[in-house]
Structures are given as structure tokens and as C-alpha cells.
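Data availability (excerpt). All sequences and predicted C-alpha cell strings are deposited with the supplementary files. A representative entry, GNAT family N-acetyltransferase, is shown inline so that the format can be inspected without opening the archive.
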Amino acid sequence: MSRAGVIERPMQQADRVENNPAKVEAFVRLFNEIPVGDLIANLTTGVETFEVAGRTFPLTLNSANEAPNCYICCPSSAYIDYAIDETHNFAGHPLLRRALQVLIGACAPLVRASGLDHQVQVNNWLYSTNPVPLLDRQTIAVLHSALVARFPDRAIVIRSLNEIADPATIAALKAEGFRMLAARQIYIFADRSAAPAMTKNMKYDRKRLAATPFERVGDADFTEADYARAEQLYNMLYLEKYTPLNPHYTVRYIAEMHRRGIISLAGLRRPGGELVAVTGLFENGGTLTQPIVGYDTSLPLSEGLYRMVMAMGQDHATARGLFFNMSAGAAGFKRLRGAVAAIEYIAVFAGHLPRRRRLAIRIMESVLALVGIPLLRRFEL
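C-alpha cell line:
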């Protein structure tokens, strides 16, 4: 995908995700040196390094008895709790909202029967969006054989696959027996290094950024007080405005991830004062994600804080020629800024598991394809 809005032909896929072994090791070391709950307050998991066919991945381990857990390691939370919470988007359609709640409730026993919470997850950076390196059939065969041998009672899970970035990997996973469970609709902002025309909204955002009375804060400018304020701003947006089911990234997480060079930070502050907006950027090879966004929600929307921090992410991608996965949410906002929608999937290998669990996963795949994807596309969830 060389321009925003132009989708690659099926089965073509650039290898845009690096998973630098030093960065993977720094990430795994962090989550083994510091208790996970001190970094992500609503998460329980084990974190390891996994190497296969010359690739290095962070690996997470979870047991069914740890549910309810944060959805980044717990499919029952994603497909039941988070899905029910998302029905607040249908407040203007009470009958539809109630119908969806009934449907989700009816599917809850199926999700639990799948046993997907008892899992080993490959390439889990513990973000909502974890771009996946290019995987071919041979690598996938070695990967699932190694993990089945080591974890014979756990489902093998890979999140964050989408039909724009990962067509060849998705095809290879299917060929090796993985089931593709639709998860959500995300938005892709492609490499704009060739400087195509900006949309009207993008131009407006950059005018706001150039004229704002707030001071730009660069990656090297963050202080201890800024880390604490960054946690507050993230909480205001993702936990208070959106949902407390999102990852509870703590001040210690933000500080350690930044100090260890895993994420970079940028923001806006009052002249000589505290931060009013922050973003954390994760650059992995030729792909960018924005796992941390926050702003002071007590300030008027007319300040344009969300507009400006999102523009910072897009400008970062453009300046470096990166493929920017803007994740889910704020659908209309992202479309008006040149992003293209794609369905995101969770890949699951369960061929080694009991028949009851395999059947539940197969039914989930069908229900999500027949009902879930049309809903995701219709309501831009």
C-alpha cells in the first residue's frame, strides 16, 4: 500500500514489521523485572521471548482461571465484556442495543466453551494493536509445532492481523489450520512520503498545531512529573471517557517503556507548566502504532487537543515513510484524515485441543463472519 486509500492486491504483503531482537528482549526483561500489575494494573500474564525460524517474538501465557483479565490477553473479556460495553454506541437505537446485548449474552457460553482464555499468545506487545511480521507457511508450521509440544493444553493465538497489512500471512495461517476470528474494525494510514494532497481536515489540524498557544514537548523533554501527568491524561481519555476495560497503563509503565527506548513520547504543555496532551508512539520496522493517547478532557473541545496529538502521529509516519496502523475507534475522525478501514482478526490454532473446544472455536468463526463483520462494517466499531 503506497498511498492512503489504495489497498494492495490480495496476497501481496511487504514485510514491514521488524521485531528487533534487542527491543523484544528489552520489553520481556521489563515485564520480568517488574511485577506485571505495577505496569498494567488490570492485567495478569507471563511474558517470555520466543524465537522461531530467525524471528523473535514476545510471548504471553495465560490461564483460564485468570479471567476476567484485560482483553489484550483474555478473549472472553474482548468478546463479551468489551462487546457489551460497546453497545453504549447504540444509545440512539434502544431496540438494536437491546438486541445486541441479548445476542452477546447468548454467545457468552460459546466463548467460554472455546477455552480461548487458556492461551499462549505470539507477538503480544501488550498493546491493543500488535503489528505482525510477515509469516510464511513453513515458519507457521514450525511455530505451532513447537508451541503445541510445549503447551499441549493451550490455544495458540496471534492478534492484530488485518486484511490490508497481512493478506499473505492470513492466507498462510489458514492453510496451516488457524481459525480467523473477526475482532474489530481498525484504520490504516499508509506511507505518505510521496506527499500526496492532504485532506481538508488534515490541513486544518496542522494549522491548529502551528498556531496553538501550548508548547510542543519532544521525546527528550519528558520529566518525572510529565510521566505522572501522562498517566492522568491517558486515564482521562481511555479509562474514564471510553471504558475502564482498556489497559490500565501506569506511570511506571510509561516511564520504563520510554526510558528503555521501547516507545517514544510527544505532547503539548501549558507554557512552562504541565502537559495537556500526550501520545506514545511504537515504531516497529516500517510500521507505526500509537498505543498511548491522552488529553485533558476538562478543557473545551475547541482546544483541539485530540486533533493535534493525532496529527503528531500522522506527521511522524509521513516524515519516516511509515505504514501507520491507527487502531480502532473514532472512525469518522480517522476516515476524514485519510485512513482506510480494515477488519482485524485474531488467529487461533486449536487442532491439538479437545473436540468440544475446537467445535466452539469453529462456530465462533462462523458467527463472527456472518454477523460480526457486517455489524463492524455497518456501525464502524
